[in-house]
Write a structure and sequence with these properties.
- The protein contains 10 helices and 10 strands.
- It is of the alpha/beta class.
- The protein has 2 domains: 184 residues, Rossmann fold; 102 residues, GMP Synthetase, Chain A, domain 3, CATH 3.30.300.10.
- The strands form 2 sheets. Strands 3-2-1-4-5 form a 5-stranded parallel β-sheet, with helices on both faces. Strands 6, 7, 8, 9 and 10 form a 5-stranded mixed β-sheet that branches.
- The radius of gyration is 21 Å and the shape is globular.
- Bound molecules: xanthosine-5'-monophosphate.
């Protein structure tokens, strides 16, 4: 039997009852596989790793050691949410690593997008490896691999970033979601009691805000990306667009333009808004945001975010633009 092929008899998980049945089955299987040993997990706070964490906490409690690496490129409130949900509410064994300075120092002055991605990926593995070496008795590595990852990449979940650990840290893999599609993962996450903001969140690239702070990342522009993104998300949620629009975010270029405020000329950054709909991210159309809402978001960003004097809305579909700006 090909153990990377979803069994034909497996029913689609579409209801809470089916999710409960899946969870019970997995809890039994995970206890059997893991016994009294320890499992390690890189917990980003994304849907897949969060559902894997919640499932393993239910199955083996504190035998799961989750490592959350804050690389400084997460959205506003995300590292806090991971600590709050997993450590405070679920009583998980969570190692929180503040690696912000380390990542930003490595990225300083690097403008090429693919080099930025490589630095972020490589540094992530290094931090994770260092944390793994501090722990005793780990025998398993849990991953949030889902079925599309297997179909698309023959089992290598590149954007989870933990595939590159050195040979002496090759643990036995635990991949309880490997036959599930994204919508099924969300139903299971709901049934496990994870917050809706975690279970239904929009896709977020592995390199995070790093590819939205265009060119060489600087701390001031990174804060502009983070704060403007938080305003965009808040306004989309208030106006019924959250959950309706597939992906929306802000990007900040590495040049300034002239503006005027309180009778004085300003020299500040523009913020670009992007909001797109797609099925598979291969092509995308632009969301028709009401003009009044665009104006309100512009007012809020230019008034509330330090160092911004213009807001632009990107009207380009994919193709010929990509969804991200780099
Ligand atoms: P593009 O910009 O290629 O993006 O139209 C398509 C989808 O992929 C996401 N994306 C990434 N995801 N690592 C990821 O995990 C990356 O380096 C990366 N670059 C783009 C993007 O957010 C969109 O959903």
């Amino acid at each position: 039997m090909d153990n990377n092929k979803r069994p034909e008899s497996m029913e689609r998980i579409t209801t809470p009852a089916l999710a409960e049945a899946f969870i019970n089955e997995q809890v039994t299987a995970l206890r059997e596989q893991i016994g009294d040993k320890k499992v390690l997990l890189a917990l980003s706070g994304g849907v897949d790793s969060s559902v894997v964490a919640a499932l393993l906490i239910k199955a083996v409690g504190k035998q799961l050691v989750s490592v959350h690496v804050n690389h400084g490129l997460l959205r506003k409130g995300e590292p806090e949410q991971v600590v709050n949900v997993f450590r405070n509410q679920m009583n998980a064994n969570l190692v929180y690593v503040d690696a912000v300075d380390r990542f930003l120092d490595k990225l300083a002055g690097v403008a090429d997008p693919e080099t930025k991605r490589k630095i972020i990926g490589d540094e992530f593995i290094k931090v994770f490896e260092e944390e793994a070496r501090k722990l005793d008795g780990i025998e398993f590595l849990a991953q949030g691999t889902i079925y599309p990852d297997i179909i698309e990449s023959k089992g290598v979940k590149a954007h989870h970033n933990v595939g590159g650990l050195p040979e002496d840290l090759k643990f036995e893999l635990v991949e309880p979601l490997k036959f599930l599609y994204k919508d099924e993962v969300r139903v299971v996450g709901d049934a496990l009691g994870l917050p809706a903001a975690m279970v239904y969140r929009q896709p977020f690239p592995g390199p995070g805000l790093g590819v939205r702070c265009l060119g060489a990342i600087t701390r001031d522009r990174l804060e502009i990306v983070r704060e403007s993104d938080a305003i965009l998300r808040e306004e989309f949620a208030k106006n019924g667009l959250e959950g309706k629009v597939w992906q929306y975010f802000t990007a900040v270029p590495d040049f300034k333009s002239v503006g005027v405020k309180d009778g004085k000329r300003t020299d500040a950054y523009p913020v670009i808004l992007r909001a797109v709909n797609t099925v598979d991210a291969m092509t995308a159309t632009v969301e028709d945001i009401p003009f009044a809402l665009l104006q309100h978001i512009t007012d809020r960003i230019t008034n509330e975010v330090e160092g911004v004097n213009r807001v632009l809305y990107d009207l380009t579909p994919k193709p010929c633009g990509t969804i991200e700006w780099e």
